[in-house]
Amino acid sequence: MKKKRFRFQWGAFLLLIFYGGLFFLLFTRMVTLQATGEVEGQALAAKAAAKYQKESAITANRGKIYDTNGKVIAEDTLSYRLIAVVNESATTNPEKPRHVVDAKRTAEILAEYLEPEMDEEAIYSRLTKLKSDGKKPYQVEFGSAGRGISHEIMNKIKEENLPGILFVSDLKRYYPNGVFASHLIGFALKEENEDGTVTTKGKMGLEKTYDEVLTGENGKVEYQTDAFRYLLPNSEKMITPAKDGDDIYLTLDKTIQSFVEDAMTRVEKEYNPESMSVVVADPKTGKILAMSQRPTFNPDTRSSENMKWLNEVIEETIEPGSTMKTFTLASAIDTGKWAPNTKFKSGQYTILDRTIRDHNQVGWGPITYLEGFQRSSNTAMANLLKLIGDDVFLDYLGRFGFGQKTGIDLPNEATGTILSQYPIQRVTTTYGQGSTVTPIQLIQAMTAIANDGKMMQPYVIDRIVDSSTGDVIEQHEPIEKGQPISADTAKQVREILASTLTSEFGTAKHFVLEEYHVAGKTGTAQIPKANGAYSWGNDEFLYSFLGMAPVDDPQLIMYVSVTKPKLKGKQGSIPVSEIFNPVMQNSLKHLNINPDDVKAVDRVATQDYTGRNAEAVQVELANDGLQPVIVGGGGEIIEQYPKGEHKLMESSFVFLKTAGNSTLPNFTDWSLRNVLVFKMMSGLNIEVVGEGFAVSQSASAGTVISDSAPIVVKLETPAESLIPDVEAPSEGEIENIEIE
Length: 740
Hints:
With 740 residues, the protein is of the alpha+beta class. The chain has 21 helices and 35 strands. Strands 4, 5, 6, 7, 12, 20 and 21 form a seven-stranded mixed beta sheet that branches. The N and C termini lie far apart (103 Å). Keywords: Membrane. Pathway: Cell wall biogenesis; peptidoglycan biosynthesis. Belongs to the transpeptidase family.
């Protein structure tokens, strides 16, 4: 048998070496990748996450600003963003175009809703603009003009049936009251960040001062997709919830603020003054209940004319005029130098080489100091200073807080200047000329007169609340700033201030109210020019009034100033009184401060109804003159509002919560508060648009709501909205509302 010879196969050997080497390299590479997780210095996990892991932002709501009773002043509300699809590729059926077919007609119609922010030409340019590569974009937007569109405007645009016009729901900073303490509240606007996200930023007032408090933290949703962006099965979905901004509750009372705004608007229209300022405060606590000025602006539109972008009550100083005589009088009484029946020679008073005169230039001959104060005599104050002593008088001004900041919880507060270097400056300061103060300093000082000598620091922030938990983060409390005068002195000052309205010589007769006794002091101040001289003439003065009511136990103090009104022959105190009188009287009634000989309103007693049958309680409450509302499907009552025992005015609402889906009531004529209570108790997705009383709703009354679709309730403010709402709960009841 022939032996087989072994033949070495070079080809096979080389192939073995080649493929074996490749396998070794691949194996080594796999081990390396497995061990390090990196390739070319880059983490594979990170690259995979970047490609397949997606992230979607959850927008946080900005905190709300409320008045002292929980009524919304500023909030994020549902709005819409306008988008126009301009690329033909969006249309698959020519009979039903889904892109802008006629740019000219579309621009013409949209201009009716977007002007003045964007005119027809600008809209047309946006619709027809090409990209840098000469191609049409898929869709375009319209900047700030196309953002914050209301539900009402959106519906009107939709009714135009414009192909390619779409809307995306959005959040807008909304100020439901329009012109309403605008310089105090300020405004916030959306800003686009470098990463393309949009943030609402405070630009003025409390919105700016408390921007960090109001701004929330956005959340996010993280998930994994495949190469085609489909969600991978069994992939983890991680949610970081958004943290809404904290809510701020002010000391402002929306009703009193509305009285102020309405009166100022009427006086501005009739007398066309250069400027006006009004402050209303609670002398017992220092709480600011209302604050406004003119010219002003609507924070939703920010349109204004000849307006200063600062809060004049806090940031600007004035020569106060004769309102300052209040504190000269208080100093004289407190030091025992006040002799009301002692006479002095009125008309003029000379100190060194300077002579001051009374406002009628000649005086009234020898008169008593009491008559001199009632007539607002400058020479009476000059003679009182001689009795008090310059140093003692200046010490009292310091005690009253003049020449120093009040410490109000607002930025940029001015201090004013008490001129005292020369004798003539100390004399003119006694009647409010030369030295400067701020309106908020006058308010603080007046609290001592109204509050039996105890001076209270003014403040506007009541509390800051965590919007998620309802926990109070920061609570502002009344702060006593000292007692510049005794209680007996304060009482005497109030009586003398009241006599300026009732005396035959009084200068404040226009401020008499029919139902309440008022005490106060008028002021007529010359306004300094840039060259140091003073303006002169009836239409060139600053007219003011610093008053309180009721005299025996003042519940409100109020400062009103009207600068350079067009009087048309009237007295300067008249436009001031046309603000003070209606605001003071209506505010006292709103606070249930009963005038003399007025009987208390009968109230209906309620009790705890939980556990009882809702339908039976409904009949019982209706028979008592109340308006019961069943929230839920009926049956056993599990919760009610107001809770527990209360005494309510007739026609007040009582909400009875039961299990089951809620039937939508007819919201027509419901107040904002009652709509919000129903929303809170039912858990329905109700979006409130506007302020005042309900006029329409997007879902019909009687509809049983079982899903989370939004229900839009539109409110409008009727002319009679300034009349106190008999349906509103009392202050104690308001504190029980926990609106989410």
